[in-house]
Amino acid sequence: MRYRVLAVIVAALALGVVAATAAASGNRTASHTLTVWLQVDAQNGWPSVVAAANTAFQNSNPGWTVNVQYQSWGDHLTKFDATIAGNDTPDVIEMGNTEMTKYMAAGAFANLSSYKGSFANSSKWLGGLTKSSMYNGKLFGVPYYAGSRLVTYRTDLFKKAGISKAPRSLGQFESDLAKVKAKESKIKGFSPFYMAGTDWYSALSFVYDYGGSIAVQKGGKWIGTLTSKKSIAGLTAYKNFFKATSPKSAATLNEANPAPYTVFSQNRTSAIFGPGWFSCCTGKKYTKVTGQFVMPSHKAGKSMPGFLGGSDLAVPAESNNQAQARAWIADFTSSTNEKALQAVGNIPNATNLLNNTVNDRAATESWFVPTAAHWVDVENGNILRTMLGQILTGKLSVKQAAATADANIAYTLNQP
After folding, report:
1. What's the burial of 186, exposed, middle or buried (CB within 10 Å: 0-12/13-18/19+)?
2. By C-alpha distance, which of 88, 97, 103, 133 is closest to 10?
């Protein structure tokens, strides 16, 4: 669920080449076997939830068994492409939310629109996950679980600077970080905040906080919207916040080199912004003084919308057991099971199931990428990263960089 990159559908899909599908799909041996692909996260983290869903399904569907096959994020798309080419897909598949669009656009998943009401809490699904499950106004996936983005910080350094409460606005946060910086000025290479400059997952949160967006579809065409007044305000706020709090050397870096939690663990910053799981990797030395809060909005008392990572469940269009696949998904995403997922640290798929934890609060305000068939090409083309680097290094003004990005986004998304 962390940073999942949408893989390009392999040539086997386009050419119809059958490639090792037996090993990938497990070759169903009986018509009454439902084949489900889940990621290893479920196998390692919540096997009891999977078992409960299987039991509920089998009790309601006598004569059926569930064959759960656990996949890894690194190769599950390649394996899925091979099953499509061989006409032997699983009946249910878990997909990272940024992986959905290309497959929805290609017609790889069954349309679930008319069955939405059969899934628990469907009217309250998290916005970020719902958007990732829809294409051209139709539903092709069911939200499974989510992960939010939080500020992870050193409680001891904030306390040392006289700060006892989480900031209520972006401006207050910047002021707090200035106090921390003053107290830690003797530490070489220390910055009060660390953000990789081209981390667009974080940067675009500023854009959405000001009411902006990346792109919209009008008249069947995609239009880049980073040059809108609200988007420019968000990009400008990001530039100002970065320059006031983060090291200049990070202006052109991505979020993997170095990882923000690595900088944190080396005592080179007091706060980072990223997935909630960053708290796991801040170093044993700082475990007891690591805290988290939701990134504050520029509007006092509000939260900044965060990119909502997560997973969805889909029914491949080639499945011969679509009714049973929908039934299993309904059992797996029941309120009881979603609460069980929440108990082991995940965010459930619906707002009415959320508690008042910092992780859950972050999920109430979220955003998602445009659901365009060629969105993956925008990511792979580093259009947003290039824009951010140009802005932070001063190579181009905010408006110039945004205009270039808009043109490239429109060209990319409107490809045939």
Report:
1. exposed
2. 103
Would 11-148+309-367 and 149-307+381-413 be classified into the same CATH topology?
yes
Residue 3 has pLDDT above 50, yes or no: no
Q: What is the pLDDT of residues 41-100, one digit of tens each?
A: 999 899 999 999 999 999 999 999 999 999 998 899 999 999 999 999 999 999 999 889
pTM: 0.78
Domain 11-148+309-367 is found in CATH 3.40.190.10? yes
Cβ neighbors of 35 (< 8 A, separation 6 or more) are: 25, 26, 28, 67, 69, 90, 91, 92
CA 357 to CA 258: how far, in whole Å? 29
Question: Is 4 in contact with 98 (CB distance < 8 Å)?
Answer: yes
Backbone angles phi, psi at 66, to 5 degrees: -115, 125
**What confidence tens digit (pLDDT) does each residue in 336-386 have?**
999 999 988 789 999 999 998 898 888 888 888 998 889 888 988 999 999
Q: Could you tell me the fold of the domain covering 149-307+381-413?
A: D-Maltodextrin-Binding Protein; domain 2 (3.40.190)
DSSP string, 201-246: HHHHHHHHHTT--SEEEETTEEEE-TTSHHHHHHHHHHHHHHHHHS
Which segments of 54-164 are extended strands (E)?
Answer: 65-71, 92-96, 134-135, 138-139, 142-147, 149-154
Summarize pLDDT for 137-148 with one digit per residue, the tens: 999 999 999 988
Angle at 247 between CA 244 and CA 250, to 5 degrees: 120
Q: Where are the domains of the chain?
A: 11-148+309-367, 149-307+381-413
How far apart, in whole angstroms, are the C-alpha atoms of residue 129 and residue 367? 9
